[in-house]
């Protein structure tokens, strides 16, 4: 297959039923081939278990098997791969008209296919693969419709699962219905992909972080910081919806006052919180009638004319209220 007709003479995986010999001699021969295939694949920096974690779709597998045949039939490329034990990503990408990222992502599959189709040692593995020329009428969702997945047992894992190579060219981790030896054709259900689960877990964490950040910005981020000086300093944080999101004090007296004050609920309005704090301060003798009380507002000015309850308490108790409203002085007596 030369460069000019790379896309004219295609090979394709087939889902058509294929008769497989099940004799003990063939199974033993397959077992030996799988053993050497493992060892040779590791020389190229890959292992079968890792290949099973990333499943190329039907169209992609057909591209990959054609790339493998292209390398096999190209003396210079094949020699490079044999000597360097890797693919010439950029050169191969240019010649097969696929992106370097595509070739790099699937080089484990390309090398696996190449080893199987080019090395006579893997005669039985090659025969197991169902590859035909110019087959384009296949149902590419075939494997998704099967409850029981069949394939050649390539590797037994430690958690009662095994990695198989299907006749349509995909490495999968399955849980077999019964115990099988390496080299036998096994049937089972697709195992959970833990790498996928880990990836999904981290995606959920990322979504959670983004959601919390958006929530924090919308509801917790401070629009105003109000400091109420009533013989102890109490800090009130207000969000952009003019709702109180935090009330705190550094002194024991301030903390006790906050604890004893009713109606200090998150998402209360500023007037409710200020009036409740002043009322409790008067009731507990923290301040007295005619005392001087100071309020400092930073970031954004506060509309004190809208603080009806607070103004009423100040007027009824004759409190000398002095406000620094973001640099502007405001007095209410």
Structure notes:
There is one protein chain. This protein is an alpha+beta fold and 333 residues long. The radius of gyration is 37 Å and the shape is rod-shaped. The relative contact order is 0.09. It has twelve helices and twelve strands. It starts with 10 loop residues before the first strand and ends with a strand. Strand 8 and strand 9 form a beta hairpin. It has two domains: 135 residues, no CATH class; 110 residues, no CATH class. Keywords: Membrane, Transmembrane, Transmembrane helix. This is Anti-sigma factor RsgI-like middle domain-containing protein. It comes from Clostridium frigidicarnis.
Jot down its keywords.
single chain, 333 residues, alpha+beta, 2 domains, 6-stranded mixed β-sheet, 4-stranded antiparallel beta barrel, rod-shaped
Domains (count)? 2
Give the biggest beta sheet.
Answer: 6 strands, mixed
The oligomerization state is: single chain
Task: Kindly estimate the percentage of residues that lie in beta strands according to DSSP.
Answer: 15-25%
- Mean pLDDT, nearest integer? 83
Helix vs. strand class: alpha+beta
Which residues form runs of ≥5 with pLDDT under 50?
Answer: none
At a glance:
This protein has 333 residues and is of the alpha+beta class. The chain has helices spanning 24-43, 48-51, 58-73, 75-84, 89-96, 100-105, 107-118, 123-128, 194-220, 252-260, 270-283, 308-316; strands spanning 11-13, 131-133, 149-156, 162-165, 171-176, 185-190, 224-229, 233-238, 244-249, 292-298, 320-325, 328-332.
């Amino acid at each position: 297959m030369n460069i000019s007709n790379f896309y004219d003479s295609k090979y394709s995986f087939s889902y058509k039923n294929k008769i497989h010999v099940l004799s003990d001699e063939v199974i033993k021969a397959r077992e030996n081939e799988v053993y050497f295939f493992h060892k040779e694949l590791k020389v190229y920096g890959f292992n079968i278990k890792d290949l099973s974690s990333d499943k190329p779709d039907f169209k992609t597998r057909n591209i990959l098997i054609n790339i493998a045949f292209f390398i096999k039939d190209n003396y210079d490329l094949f020699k490079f791969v044999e000597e360097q034990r890797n693919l010439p990503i950029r050169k191969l990408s240019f010649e097969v008209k696929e992106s370097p990222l595509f070739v790099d992502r699937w080089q484990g599959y390309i090398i696996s296919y190449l080893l199987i189709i080019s090395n006579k040692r893997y005669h039985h593995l090659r025969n197991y693969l169902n590859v035909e020329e110019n087959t384009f009428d296949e149902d590419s969702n075939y494997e998704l419709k099967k409850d029981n997945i069949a394939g050649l047992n390539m590797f037994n894992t430690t958690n009662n699962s095994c990695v198989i190579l299907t006749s349509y060219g995909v490495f999968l981790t399955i849980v077999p219905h019964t115990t099988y030896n390496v080299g036998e054709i096994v049937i089972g259900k697709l195992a959970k992909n833990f790498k996928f689960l880990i990836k999904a877990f981290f995606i959920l964490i990322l979504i959670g972080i983004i959601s919390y950040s958006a929530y924090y910005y919308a509801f917790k981020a401070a629009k105003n910081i109000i400091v109420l000086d009533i013989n102890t300093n109490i800090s009130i944080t207000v969000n952009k919806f003019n709702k109180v999101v935090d009330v705190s004090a550094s002194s024991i007296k301030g903390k006790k006052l906050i604890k004893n004050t009713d109606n200090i609920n998150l998402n209360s309005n500023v007037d409710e919180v200020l009036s409740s704090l002043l009322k409790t301060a008067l009731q507990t003798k923290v301040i007295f009638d005619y005392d001087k009380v100071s309020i400092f507002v930073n970031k954004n000015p506060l509309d004190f004319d809208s603080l009806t309850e607070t103004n009423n308490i100040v007027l009824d108790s004759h409190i000398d209220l002095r406000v620094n409203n973001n640099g502007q002085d405001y007095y209410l007596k």
